Amino acid sequence: MTDADLLLHLGVDPAALDPSPERRRSADACQRIGLPCAVCGRPGYATRIVRLPDGCRWLDTCRDHMIASARFQAVSRPWTDILADLREAAAEAGVAVTVLVHDEAG
Ligand SMILES: [Zn+2]
Predict the structure, then answer these.
(1) Ligand 1 centre from 68 Cα, in Å?
(2) Residues 6 or more apart from 29 whose CB is under 8 A from it?
(3) What pLDDT score does 75 carry?
(4) Rounded to the nearest whole angstrom, what is the distance from the C-alpha of residue 46 to the centroid of ligand 1?
(5) Distance between CA atoms of 46 and 48, rounded to whole angstroms?
(6) Ligand 1 centroid, distance to 97 Cα (angstroms)
(7) Cα dihedral angle (15, 36, 71, 58), rounded to 10 degrees?
(8) Torsion angle of C-alpha atoms 68, 6, 61, 93, degrees rounded to 10
(9) What is the structure's pLDDT at 99?
(10) What is the pLDDT of residue 80?
(11) 66/11 Cα distance (integer angstroms)
(12) What is the Cα 8 distance to its own chain's centre?
């Protein structure tokens, strides 16, 4: 699953998104909160960077579409990738994280 797949799932035209830097800085992200959701136009609740073949862009989303994005990514990504992201974020933040996984099938 790529960010282009996510935009296709949400029905967002990548060309309509603002260009972004490759790495998210908190100050930039804070300034984007409240901008219209790229999906429905309601006030934005969150923002993230999507990596596309022609460069990085901001994806501003309302609360509902932030959750829809997270759900799409969660079901589309192997859990090992999600754990790798958690480890990377914890290392970047300088905190220790213990992750417990429950396998509902087992
Ligand atoms: Zn929305």
Answers:
(1) 9
(2) 47
(3) 74
(4) 10
(5) 7
(6) 31
(7) 40
(8) 90
(9) 78
(10) 78
(11) 14
(12) 14
N residues, the chain: 106
Query: Pick the residue with more confidence: 7 or 77?
Result: 7
CA 7 to ligand 1 center in whole angstroms: 13
- Kindly report the number of other CB atoms within 10 A of residue 5's CB atom: 12
Query: 91 CB contacts (<8 Å, ≥6 apart)?
Result: none
Q: How far is CA 104 from CA 34, 56, 76, in A?
A: 37, 36, 17
Q: Which residues on adjacent β-strands are paired with residue 51?
A: 56
Query: What is the reported pLDDT for 29?
Result: 82
Between CA 86 and CA 92, with CA 91 as vertex, the angle to 5 degrees is 100
Q: How far is the CA of 47 from the centre of ligand 1 (A)?
A: 11
pLDDT at 28: 82
Compute, in angstroms, the gap from residue 33 CA to the centroid of ligand 1.
13
